[in-house]
Amino acid sequence: MVTQLKYQDPTKPLENHEMATQLAQFNTVEQLMGVNKTLEAMQNQSAQSNIDKLTPYLGRVVEVSGAKLSVSPEMQVSKGIVDLPGRAGSVSILIKDDQGSVIRTIGLGEKASGRHTFDWDGKTDGGVKAKSGEYNFEVVASATDGKEMKAKTSFTSKVEAIVDLASGGKLDTQIGKVEAKDILAIRPEQTSVDTKRTEGSDARRDALRAERDAKRAERAARVTQAEPAANAAKAEPATNAAKAEPAANEQRSIKVSSTNNKAQ
Known about the structure:
Blueprint: H1 2-6, H2 16-54, E1 61-65, E2 68-71, E3 76-77, E4 80-84, E5 88-96, E6 102-111, E7 114-118, E8 133-143, E9 148-149, E10 152-163, E11 170-173, E12 176-178, E13 183-187, E14 193-194, H3 195-263
Antiparallel strand pairs: 1-10, 1-13, 2-8, 3-14, 4-7, 4-10, 5-6, 5-8, 8-9, 10-11, 11-12
């Protein structure tokens, strides 16, 4: 406005209504700039609030709606979950690669209604270890009468970071980015399946069980060996008493004979 007044033609002064219109326009622009600043502040505050809500998920194993699995280079395989609406006569899991080809079929057989977890050992139908990466799975289920059954699917994965902070934040898991709205539950750490760790735990349990059995057998053998000695120790006093009894009777007979001779 000041610049316009500076270069205004003195012979053509600005009309009063034109001046008021321009002042109103300037005021409107100033208000819009204030609104933009307020919206930016609200957006930043909302993003920070979303990040604060996502922070507790860091390092936790979450159950996410979907049908994905992952295989790590260490052969750590995530766990899949199937939720059946009713009793199923047959349930099969088809694991597919990124090309959509089925590389493994897992038959679960007959299952009751409700949630069921399944484990994949990270191998194909041919027994070959699958490459590390992400995979999809499909559930093929039929009711006891043979009719097709729709099942809900989910999977577990560990949250490693919070990303896309500018847009409110997403959870970066071992299987990829997920929205907080897709998280169904927080699961214990052991729901992330580690095949090697599981096998090692089984071996350790078997070793401990064998060690306990060996100790029990050793204690039983010691007791068995100690019983004859204890029985012999108990029997020895009775034997000695039996041997001593005739001698005592003989001594008594000698004393009686001596007494009779003296009396005669």
